Amino acid sequence: MRPPSARHRRLAGVLFAAALLPAVSLGPAAWAAAPATPGVDFTDGFGLSQVADGTDVRSSTDFTITVTTPEVAGPHRIRIFLPSGYADDPDRRWPVTYFLHGGGGNVDDAAAAPALHSDAMITVVPDGGLKSWYADWYMQHTAVGAANWETFHLEQVVPYIDANLRTLPDREHRAVTGLSMGGSGALHYAQARPDLFGHASSLSGGIDFSMATVRAAVLATELNLPGAWCALSTSSSQGCPTYGPYVDSDAVFGSPYAVLGADHRWNAYDPAAPANLSKLKNTQVTLYTGDQGLIDGQTAIAAHTVKNRLDQLGIPSRLVDYGNGASLSSQCDGSHTYGCWGPAYADYIPRLKAAFEAAAKR
Questions:
Q1: pLDDT, tens only, 204-259
Q2: Which terminus, N or C, of the chain has the lesser number of Cβ atoms within 10 Å?
Q3: CB 301: neighbour CB atoms within 10 A?
Q4: Rounded Cα gap, residues 305 and 208, in angstroms
Q5: What is the pLDDT of residue 40?
């Protein structure tokens, strides 16, 4: 594995210093009966194979399975929260919310936002990698191997869940939400597959890829700059995470240089691009952000840009800029932490429940 070139080190260093690196950390299914031991008897399919002895059961409504797929190298965990009444009514089907964790995080981070384990819906937390950016990577032969994360999630995990759990498999009863890196992924997934998701939300998301600070964050994770991300990780666990092995700065989205269209893949993905935002015309969009600290000071700019563009397009949306956090919770200081994201989800999930219930009556 070759070390970073001088050009890559200079580029990442300049962007890091300037930006202070914000962590922007299928058809009708045959619904399965509630498993006696959750997750054990899921049926393989859609390119996913369950790993034997890879299931971690915390309770009958909180368990994690492990799967493999040719699309993404290595085994990957999927944590699932079931409503407490899931086993009691074997004929009932449920809405589903997909939670996308942030950079440097993992599926267990969802436990830091208790509202995500709701009695009104199934919540699915797929592994999003340390630096996937929820995309099919431009380079597939880096040190991390195959990295088709978007394909893994949208073409495999979603139908796999619909086939193995009693879901309501339509866009009106399916949501995607995420924070930091996962916030950009949530908006992108809703834009890429409006047929799948009728609801999308981003918390402190890196959702404007035209911002040098957001591009800097992507580059820093690719290059795994030592120490830079310890304080900025979105993981709810303690310690200083790694972002995995060094990969080329072009690995995820190709060249970041805005010269002669070289950055066209960045622009095509950009959740804030008007052409992409226009795809959300029939989607309920919610944005949350604080405005304190090095990171949310930037995510607030991105959130307001997206809100303004949605308004210009005539697409209804809701923006909650909780500023220093005082209006949200005494636990929140307006910065890039679960002290704010936990209360934000406590506000969002009941609203999402109401939207699901309203859809069921139509």
A1: 999 999 999 999 989 988 988 755 545 455 665 545 567 888 999 999 999 999 89
A2: C
A3: 17
A4: 8
A5: 72
Q: How is residue 3 annotated by DSSP?
A: P
Q: Is 66 helix (H, G, I), strand (E, B) or coil?
A: strand
Tokens of 81: 């929260």
Which of 60, 61, 42 lies closest to 52 in space, CA to CA? 42
Structure tokens that stand for 315 in this block:
């697409």
* 37 pLDDT higher than 90: no
Residue 360: helix, strand or coil by DSSP?
helix
Amino acid letter for position 162: D
pLDDT at 12: 41
Q: What is the DSSP string of 238-257?
A: SS-----S---TTTTTS---
**8 Å CB contact between 311 and 296:** no
Asked if 354 and 347 touch (Cβ cutoff 8 Å), the reply is: no
Distance CA 72, CA 249 (A): 19
pTM of the model: 0.89
Q: Report DSSP state, residue 33.
A: P
Distance CA 11, CA 136 (A): 23
R_g of the chain computed on alpha carbons: 19
- Alpha-carbon gap, residue 199 to 174, rounded angstroms: 7
Number of residues written out for the chain: 362
Q: What is the pLDDT of residue 205?
A: 96
Task: Give the DSSP letter of residue 136.
Answer: B
**SS3 label, residue 159:** helix
Full DSSP string of 95-108:
-EEEEE--TT--GG
For Cα atoms 59, 64, 69, give the angle at the middle one, nearest 5 degrees: 160
Phi, psi torsion values for 48, nearest 5 degrees: -105, 135
H/E run at residue 75: strand 72-81
In three state form, how does the secondary structure of 277-342 look? HHHHCCCEEEEEEECCHHHHHHHHHHHHHHHHHHHHCCCCEEEEEEECCCCCCCCCCCCCCHHHHH
Cα dihedral value 78, 81, 82, 84, nearest 10: 160
* C-alpha span between 79 and 116 (Å, rounded): 12
**Distance separating alpha carbons of residues 357 and 335, to the nearest angstrom:** 32
**What 3-state DSSP class applies to 201?**
strand
